[in-house]
């Protein structure tokens, strides 16, 4: 069973839908460890001072931002906590937009939203409403002390919470040497275009993602299995898993009452909330100006 990484509620008008958040990704990556070939022991990495070569204890480590070459601003845990977003347990939808209007480049990481028992009816209502209208609910959510912009939409029987990249996180194509669509010298002839579109038509099929597999991983696992069956296994180090927490229970919501009260609040409050979100995005974009790259990592020694 996938592990819930977050528990809270969806705020849909005055309707509150208790949900848990589960990653929709499943990356079966093959994990490798660095091992000493002499005695098969795991390699331990040390925190080494780049100037003195001495190992640095944990209690002396602080974070630093390199604003100029060799010049750092040191930030303590208290400094970082003072600017962290409030740890809320709510996904408050501030506005709805057409799902097809969201640039796919902004899609970052998908999550499944699973309702608690008392929120199943409200969950189904929001899911079907989003499916019927083709809309996505725009909201902000705090996961592990970091705030994310997100879009909520329906897929099959699930509500998907897609974390979004901010526009300033997308690199501009103007810095790339791309052939201009207005360059007459590069404009394809009618014959070339006809042949290209004909080839595309002949190769067009129905999209079926199940037909595609990670062939490299399969070949690597086959190779590893052969080594295992050949008796080449060495001792392994197992690590404990984290414990799970129990789900909460409650009463079923009276949806009609909450929806009527939501409508009575009027469009003014919803417009103000959406305006605050847009202003926050613009403010974040203005603060994102940086002349230097993040601080370089210290050299590590095995």
TrEMBL record:
Q: Name a single GO biological process.
A: DNA recombination
Query: Where does this protein have compositionally biased stretches of type Basic and acidic residues?
Result: 231-240
Stretches of Basic residues bias are at 279-302
Q: Tell me the keywords, alphabetical order.
A: DNA damage, DNA recombination, DNA repair, DNA-binding
Q: Where does the source fall among the domains of life?
A: Bacteria
Q: Where is the segment annotated Disordered?
A: 231-251, 265-302
The residue range of the signal peptide is none
Q: Which CDD domains match?
A: KU_like
Please list the residue ranges that the record marks as compositionally biased, kind Polar residues: 265-277
NCBIfam families cross-referenced by the UniProt entry: Ku_bact (TIGR02772)
Query: Protein name, please?
Result: Non-homologous end joining protein Ku
Supply the source organism for this entry. Answer: Luteolibacter yonseiensis
